[in-house]
Each structure stands twice: as C-alpha cells, then as structure tokens.
TrEMBL record:
Taxonomic lineage of the native organism: Archaea, Methanobacteriati, Thermoplasmatota, Thermoplasmata, Thermoplasmatales
Domain ChsH2 C-terminal OB-fold: 73-135
Protein name per UniProt: Nucleotide-binding protein
Gene3D superfamilies linked: 6.10.30.10
Amino acid sequence: MDRYTRVMKTDPLVKEFDYNIEYIHSYAQDSKFFTSLGMGILLGSECKKCNYRYGTYRKYCMFCGSETDDINLPLTGKIHSFTTCYYSGENFINETPYTLILVEFEGIDSLFMSRLVNKENKNVYIGMPVRAKFRRLQKFDVNDVYFVPA
Ligand SMILES: [Zn+2]
C-alpha cells in the first residue's frame, strides 16, 4: 500500500502523511443505548435505589453505585445551554460552525449533550424547545441522534 507523504519543511523536518488504522470499539454496557437510536428510542436510566434519573445513559448510578433501569427519554425537551463550535473533529469538519446543546428533559435529573441542527436558522436561546431526530442510516455512534427546533 502506497502512503501519501509530503515534506512540508526541512529544518526542522516536518512531513505530512495519511494515517489509517482499523479500530475495534466495544460499547459494552452502553450497547443498548446505541442500538436503540436506530429504532428512534432515546434511552436514559433510573437508579433502582435513589431514583435519580439520568439523561445520559449509564448502567450504574454515580451517586450510590446501584444498577440502573432503562427508561425512555421524552423526545422533546428544552435547551439548558449551548455553544457554537468553529473548530471540529473529522465528523463535523464540513458543518462548522455548528451548535452543541445540553438538553433538559422534564422529569429527568441530568442533561443530554447533542447537536442542534437548525436549518430554519432560528435564534438559539436558553429554554428553546427542541425535539430529537434520528439519522436514517444508523452509524452506531452518538450522532445517530440530534435535535431540531420544536
Ligand atoms: Zn443511586
């Protein structure tokens, strides 16, 4: 396999080259969260002991260590906070700037981080109603769900 290599500077020597690896990642106990996204279900968790309700899926309570039960999160919520990202990793490099949001769900004690896709260019504000949408071609990552203005 030929690899692309380009010398950018000679003193000090700096070169650019492509770098690809096969990466195997296990979602382990979080697998159900990711597979559920393909069915249009956003899973959260509820602690069996202290009843804390998580907007971000987890199998064990961070307060008491007890195992949690799965709960279906509502597909609508409101923006708790947001930020605009002008730089990005590879996944969103063509979409910058984009908006990251923390979603607040009624009856849920913690927040869920996601992206706001705002094709209508509505002004984003704290408290803005949003609803979940799911990517049609599931890639089994956290970007299989995103939010739009409700
Ligand atoms: Zn607990």
